Amino acid sequence: MSGAADHHIGDAAGAGAGNRMQRTPLRVAIVDDEPLARLAVCTHLARRPGFEIVAEYADGDAAAHGLALLRPDLAFVDVQMPGRSGLAALAALPRDSRPMAILLTAHEGFALQAFELAALDYLLKPIDDERLDEALERALDAFPYRRTSAAAAAAAPWLRSFSVRAGARTVLVGAAEVERIEADGDYATLHVGTRRYLVRERLHALARRLDPLQFQRVHRSSIVRLDMVAELRALTNRDALLRLRDGTLLRASRTYMPALTQALARQGQPAAALLKTG
Q: Does position 145 have pLDDT exceeding 50, yes or no?
């Protein structure tokens, strides 16, 4: 790595043939005005399969232009740089075309901005290798949830109703009536007002069959209907606490936060408007 900035990279060191679950490596851009900081990320990624560095940028203006053209899957972004900041460079991109972002900063206290931009994580400099590995794992886990577009959602045959047992009867429960769904081993529990219905299907299977414009998985054990979300509260570990309109409190895992914040924005509920701190 030469240390030169604001350039595109054809074959990144360490991209290799290995990848997670045999999928195409995530395309990565690095935005940082410090050459040594860029080099540290490059060196770490060279030891990890599943990632391909496609560009480096040393200032926010070049990053805003380059990210819009290249549309990488993941970007490491320095929060504070001379001129346009990394946060401003991300904010300048249309929401649907922003890459997953891992923020880099020498200072704490960027939870609000991280939530507004649906950042996966933010790492304090000097970057700890273990924390960087956690952030990369989060990116690999979150990436599949970003693939659904509004056009695909409109065309897909999403689940419209559930067939459930109610005593000796079998009844249909409309998907639009379900407020949240919780995992229960091989089953899932549907919450419809004060009523509970058990369906024999695992939560991860249901998550793939529900319209992502109406429902989002927020944790490995829960799915919520988007219009039920009344408040987000940032937690210190980059998870969030959700308050639903009926008063229910749920934990939202950082893995699912980018998809959740983007889905809320599509509904006209920006995460920043729902976010409470303290």
A: yes
- The answer to whether 43 touches 51, Cβ cutoff 8 Å, is no
Alpha-carbon distance 264 to 259, whole Å?
9
Residue 16 has pLDDT above 60, yes or no: no
Rounded to the nearest angstrom, the gap between the alpha carbon of residue 19 and the centroid of all alpha carbons in its chain is 20
For residue 245, the SS3 value is coil
What is the model's pLDDT at position 20?
Answer: 43
Please give the Cα distance from 31 to 67 (Å, whole number): 10
Q: Worst-scoring range by mean pLDDT, 3-17, 48-62, 189-203, 257-271?
A: 3-17
Residue 9 amino acid letter:
I
Q: What length does the chain have?
A: 278
End-to-end CA distance of the chain: 42
pLDDT in tens, 58-86: 999 999 989 988 899 999 999 988 889 99
For residue range 96-122, what is the model confidence (pLDDT) as tens digits? 788 999 999 887 666 666 776 778 888
The letter for the amino acid at 58 is A
- Which stretches of 48-124 are DSSP H helices? 60-70, 86-91, 111-116
Residue that has been written with the tokens 């659904």 in this structure: 148
Please tell me what DSSP assigns to residue 263: H
User: Nearest 5°: phi and psi at 214?
Assistant: -115, -30
pTM: 0.57
Residues 6+ apart with CB under 8 A from 235: 241, 251
**Nearest alpha carbon to residue 121 among 236, 5, 241:** 236
